[in-house]
């Protein structure tokens, strides 16, 4: 099984996706996917039976607004991504309660992949993460030290890691640092041969994991 | 002119909106409006000639993702709302450049209205705000001290303030503390008589502003 999540920030044809699905078993939607493809497209992609579909809404609002958004997209995803910095009371408390009741997963962003993100807030975000107790966390692959920190602080939680490929991190590095899945988008969907590139990325990741001998556990 | 922005987090009929438009000249869309009403509804509402339409996406992503989202919704709004905590490089720098080029406004969230929001990060966010130099800021009406701080720090910027009504702040208080506009949603769209309530809110706000004698300037 590959440790890759396809960031579908572009509309790829369903037949191509079905082929990519042989190498990459998880997919991440975003507002870009929704705006470009519409709800109908998301519905068709969801039906392709991925191991997990994650909706990356980067939720960062008050509780009632986040729950309204998530409830409208509930049938199109297994898990949702929210920011942690918004805090607990009146925000993540009710969102987590809602998602648990709906049997949906929540991933909290603990560190982003772009240059301007400030990791000095991590002690604060970690505290919120402990209170929320979500399924897992998002930590940028461009932040190897942060992946190690979050892995040490939350040994049982799933870590998913964006920023691989176009954003600069090498395939496999985030896994070797402690992540469970690497999120790859542009390298695949901007390619003329997304199927071949998917296979290539899967093999590169496997080679790298073999090299560092850090095979992720199957966390639930 | 009323100092009210209607938070359209629900689908209100166009004829009712046309009547509300007599008392409230600005409207704020959110993902809830988009998901419930669809792009076609937003397009029709936009045509009602508001003084300003603001799309409250609470953007909080890397530059390329935020720009993809905003460019898909460009023709439906005059301004967009983004979080500030995501930082400058690789996020707000490019977003601000893009929006300026498109003649669109940007409002940065500096303080939210719910209990869990932590204002101890304000000095950091203020620094980012100074670098971005946006059209204005979002500061929760439930945080009177923060409205005063932001007004003192940014005398020329527009402050828009959510959290009025259902979330606890009294109509007019945010204006008296230094905000330019109060954002009101549920009190209006959950009412059986949204038109009458809109007029009532407008009059209450005017009375309150007369009481505190703090009429906002016309900031651009």
Automatic annotation (TrEMBL), chains A, B:
<dbReference type="InterPro" id="IPR013785">
    <property type="entry name" value="Aldolase_TIM"/>
</dbReference>
<feature type="domain" description="Orotidine 5'-phosphate decarboxylase">
    <location>
        <begin position="3"/>
        <end position="201"/>
    </location>
</feature>
<dbReference type="InterPro" id="IPR001754">
    <property type="entry name" value="OMPdeCOase_dom"/>
</dbReference>
<feature type="binding site">
    <location>
        <position position="28"/>
    </location>
    <ligand>
        <name>substrate</name>
    </ligand>
</feature>
<keyword id="KW-0456">Lyase</keyword>
<dbReference type="GO" id="GO:0004590">
    <property type="term" value="F:orotidine-5'-phosphate decarboxylase activity"/>
</dbReference>
<keyword id="KW-0210">Decarboxylase</keyword>
<protein>
    <recommendedName>
        <fullName>Orotidine 5'-phosphate decarboxylase</fullName>
        <ecNumber>4.1.1.23</ecNumber>
    </recommendedName>
</protein>
<dbReference type="GO" id="GO:0005829">
    <property type="term" value="C:cytosol"/>
</dbReference>
<dbReference type="InterPro" id="IPR014732">
    <property type="entry name" value="OMPdecase"/>
</dbReference>
<feature type="active site" description="For OMPdecase activity">
    <location>
        <position position="61"/>
    </location>
</feature>
<dbReference type="GO" id="GO:0044205">
    <property type="term" value="P:'de novo' UMP biosynthetic process"/>
</dbReference>
<feature type="binding site">
    <location>
        <position position="185"/>
    </location>
    <ligand>
        <name>substrate</name>
    </ligand>
</feature>
<feature type="active site" description="For OMPdecase activity">
    <location>
        <position position="56"/>
    </location>
</feature>
<dbReference type="Pfam" id="PF00215">
    <property type="entry name" value="OMPdecase"/>
</dbReference>
<dbReference type="InterPro" id="IPR018089">
    <property type="entry name" value="OMPdecase_AS"/>
</dbReference>
<feature type="binding site">
    <location>
        <position position="113"/>
    </location>
    <ligand>
        <name>substrate</name>
    </ligand>
</feature>
<comment type="pathway">
    <text>Pyrimidine metabolism; UMP biosynthesis via de novo pathway; UMP from orotate: step 2/2.</text>
</comment>
<keyword id="KW-0665">Pyrimidine biosynthesis</keyword>
<dbReference type="InterPro" id="IPR011060">
    <property type="entry name" value="RibuloseP-bd_barrel"/>
</dbReference>
<feature type="binding site">
    <location>
        <position position="186"/>
    </location>
    <ligand>
        <name>substrate</name>
    </ligand>
</feature>
<feature type="active site" description="For OMPdecase activity">
    <location>
        <position position="58"/>
    </location>
</feature>
<dbReference type="GO" id="GO:0006207">
    <property type="term" value="P:'de novo' pyrimidine nucleobase biosynthetic process"/>
</dbReference>
């Amino acid at each position: 099984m590959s440790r890759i999540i396809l960031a579908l920030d572009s509309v790829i044809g369903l037949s191509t996706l079905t082929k990519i699905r042989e190498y990459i078993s998880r997919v991440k939607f975003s507002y870009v996917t929704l705006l470009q493809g519409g709800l109908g497209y998301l519905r068709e992609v969801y039906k392709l039976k991925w191991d997990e579909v994650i909706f990356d809404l980067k939720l960062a609002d008050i509780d009632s607004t986040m729950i309204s958004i998530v409830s409208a997209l509930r049938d199109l995803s297994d898990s949702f991504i929210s920011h942690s910095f918004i805090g607990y009371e009146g925000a993540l408390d009710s969102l987590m309660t809602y998602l648990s009741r709906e049997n949906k997963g929540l991933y909290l962003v603990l560190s982003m992949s772009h240059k301007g993100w400030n990791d000095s807030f991590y002690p604060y975000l970690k505290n919120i993460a402990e209170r929320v107790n979500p399924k897992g966390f998002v930590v940028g692959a461009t932040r190897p030290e942060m992946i190690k920190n979050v892995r040490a602080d939350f040994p049982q939680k799933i870590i998913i890691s964006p920023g691989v490929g176009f954003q600069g991190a090498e395939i496999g590095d985030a896994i070797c640092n402690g992540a469970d899945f690497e999120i790859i988008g542009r390298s695949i969907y901007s390619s003329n041969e997304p199927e071949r590139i998917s296979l290539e990325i899967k093999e590169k990741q496997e080679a790298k994991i073999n090299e560092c001998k850090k095979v992720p556990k199957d966390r639930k």
